[in-house]
Amino acid sequence: MSDPRPTWALAIHGGAGVAEHVALDTDLQARYRLGLKAALDAGSAILSEGGAALDAVEAAVRVLEDDPLFNAGRGAVFTAAGRNELDAAMMDGVSLSAGAVAGLSRSRHPVSVARAVMERSGHVMLIGDGAEAFARAQGLEAEPPAFFFTEQRWGALEAHLRHLGQAAPPRPDWATTAAGDPFEPGGEHPFGTVGAVALDSDGRLAAATSTGGMTGKAAGRVGDTPIIGAGTYADGHAAVSGTGDGELFIRLTLARDTARLVEDGLTPRAAADVLIKQKLTALGGSGGAIVVDRQGRVGWSFNSPAMFRASITSADAPIVGIFEGDG
After folding, report:
1. Angle at the Cα of 74 (from 43 to 183), degrees rounded to 5?
2. Engineered SS bond to 57: which of 186, 196, 215, 217, CB 3.0-4.6 Å?
3. How many Cα atoms occupy the beta-carbon half-sphere of 2 within 13 Å?
4. Which CATH class is domain 9-323?
5. Percent of the chain scored above 70 by pLDDT?
6. Could you count the other beta carbons within 10 Å of the beta carbon of residue 325?
7. How far, in Å, CA of 124 to CA of 91, rounded?
8. Any alpha helices (H) in the chain, and if so which ranges?
């Protein structure tokens, strides 16, 4: 029988999107599950040894940022101009400290830059060149643009612009298919954003989210991920990370309102359902959210056909799922 009160808990997501079962063959589903499990293992290894929730969510998200399957870090989508612009955020539920970055183009791990902003800058958000300069001053990893290029994301940009009747930007001279890029040119699996939420054995909650944004987005567009209270939030009651239609998540202050419902007594799943399946759906939006509360209860909700997700607690075995009722 499961312990009714886990001492630690971790949930992660790899985005929510419009895929149907046919869009993900058995092999590709297996690759996504392995990627999610690797991130879950990285975070849970820290929590199981008594480590901090902040360290666990950062570790989990860094794994997903390095995996080209996911729309964050190396697998980020392209703007309409053919650039990668990366956003991330982290929040500490104990102190309500938060850090966020937007419009990064060289930082390998935007989530680590967000944490450095939280802990070392005296600010909450840095953007663009200023954020990159800060990251270099902190000794954080940088990569050339070619590191972030994948055929799948470039093909998605070309298809998106073609649908709009617009010409695609020239393919960069330096663009080559990286070893391990699992996609054929033009393929598209439109899931966006990765995130993690955790409770550690000292009762501390934390949340982290990272994204490449929307395929074909306007240069300088910023979605919900780095907006504290919209796509990322943690306090003494719950930690929340979201994925979906960012503009609507911002308007709903979706992550903060989810945490408030948990504070008012709803379970993580019930609170997420209110925001995702009622309020977001009422606005015609799509997406999902993961939640963990101070009792170690994990919940998630999504109104799209798929959301990549996984969880584990000190009392429960790992769960990895993609579709509704899966995992």
Report:
1. 110
2. 196
3. 13
4. alpha beta
5. 92
6. 5
7. 10
8. 26-48, 53-65, 110-116, 128-137, 145-148, 151-163, 246-252, 254-263, 268-273, 281-282
Radius of gyration of the chain measured on its C-alpha atoms: 18
> What is the pTM for the complete model shown?
0.94
Closest CA to 199 of 321, 43, 310, 90: 43
User: Tens digit of pLDDT for each residue in 247-297?
Assistant: 999 999 999 999 999 999 999 999 999 999 999 999 999 999 999 999 999
Name the phi and psi angles at 261, rounded to 5.
-65, -35
Q: Which residue is it, tokens 């270099």?
A: 136
Please report where in the chains the tokens 């570790």 appear, as a residue. 59
Q: 193-218 as b/e, with b when 16 or more CB fall inside 10 Å?
A: bbbbbbbbbeebbbbbbbbbbbbbbe
CA 7, chain centre distance (Å): 24
Sheet holding 298-302, edge to edge: 232-234, 238-244, 287-293, 298-302
Q: Please answer whether residues 225 and 110 qualify as being in contact, where contact means their C-beta atoms are separated by less than 8 angstroms.
A: no
CA–CA gap between residue 124 and residue 249 (Å, rounded): 19
Confidence of residue 187 (pLDDT cuts 50, 70, 90): very low
Residue 249 contacts residue 106 (beta carbons within 8 Å)? no
Query: Which tokens is 318 given?
Result: 């790992």
| Helix (H) and strand (E) counts in the chain | 10, 12
Question: Which residues are annotated as catalytic?
Answer: 193
pLDDT in tens, 127-182: 999 999 999 999 999 999 999 999 989 999 999 999 999 999 999 888 865 544 44
Backbone angles phi, psi at 224, to 5 degrees: -80, -25
- How deeply is 251 buried, as exposed, middle or buried, from its count of CB atoms within 10 A (0-12, 13-18, 19+)? middle
Q: Which residue has the tokens 């330096």?
A: 174
Distances (CA, A) of 37 to 185, 264, 292, 309, 323: 26, 32, 18, 9, 16
Instruction: Say which residue the tokens 């890029």 belong to.
Output: 181
Would you state the structure tokens that stand for residue 50, as one six-digit string?
């008594």
End-to-end CA distance of the chain: 19
- pLDDT tens sequence across 40-71: 999 999 999 999 999 999 999 999 999 999 99
